[in-house]
Amino acid sequence: MTLPLPLGSFPFPILYYHRVAPGVDPRTGVTPERFRRQMAILASLGYRGVTLREALALAAGQREIPGPLPIVLTFDDGYLDNYDHAAPILGELGFRATIYFVAERMGGRVDWTGDPLWGGHPLMDPGKARELVEMGFEAGSHTLTHPDLARLPEAEARREIAESRPRLSDLLSAPVTTFCYPYGSFLPIHAGMVREAGYSAARTVRRYRLGRPEDLMTLACRPVSGRMGLGRFALTAAAYRMLFPLRSSGGKRLRPERGESL
Ligand SMILES: [Zn+2]
């Protein structure tokens, strides 16, 4: 298919997950069975799950996208269950994904919140993360310690953003080129810090709004939790199949409805 790609836009949808585990609380993730069905839906709609880095390369370098339409799959925090349950399902379909790791917490447990819903869950260690990187998964940065950047002094925020990049790169023997804001919390100054630190893009937790142009340092996405039914997942993915190429072609037929959430 041909996608006319205007400069400064990012024409592919991004999904955003946390955990994938049996019996997971639906507010924090999906079960492996549900995840498998969701990925099968994407494949049947003509999508291929890709990393953010691959999608950026496709958007920057080519107007002709070969084969299935890329859909970016992202996972926040680097849960061990992503390795145990999500990666094998993605591997079976030839899909890949970007996982955002917290550099100083790898191999440990979630300690950045006292909320029992999220706290204490085991995080992937560098060895397992390296295995995924060798399979073609992308390791992105989710800072050093998962702070709320908007509440940090400027120098601290800069350190969390900038130092996590070489730290993860050393741990995983891989380039780290994309970033994700913890809690989706950031100020405009932080987007500048992300750019200055050498990242090529960053994902927020902001949901897509029709007609809003995409800034690579504050990319929007569609969060997926266990509360999203399969029917809604399929409808959303089918809608993106139509909307994203339309939007990237200049949006003449797609009148922006400001504030309308997808
Ligand atoms: Zn996070």
From TrEMBL:
Subcellular location, record wording:
Secreted
Identify the PROSITE patterns for this entry.
NODB
MF terms from GO for this chain are: hydrolase activity, acting on carbon-nitrogen (but not peptide) bonds
Q: What is its main location?
A: secreted
Q: What region holds the NodB homology domain?
A: 69-262
Q: Which UniProt keywords apply?
A: Signal
InterPro entries in the record: Glyco_hydro/deAcase_b/a-brl (IPR011330), NODB_dom (IPR002509), Polysacch_Deacetylase (IPR051398)
Q: Name one GO biological process term.
A: carbohydrate metabolic process
Cellular component GO terms held in the UniProt record: extracellular region
Protein name as annotated? Polysaccharide deacetylase
Organism (species): Leptospirillum ferrodiazotrophum
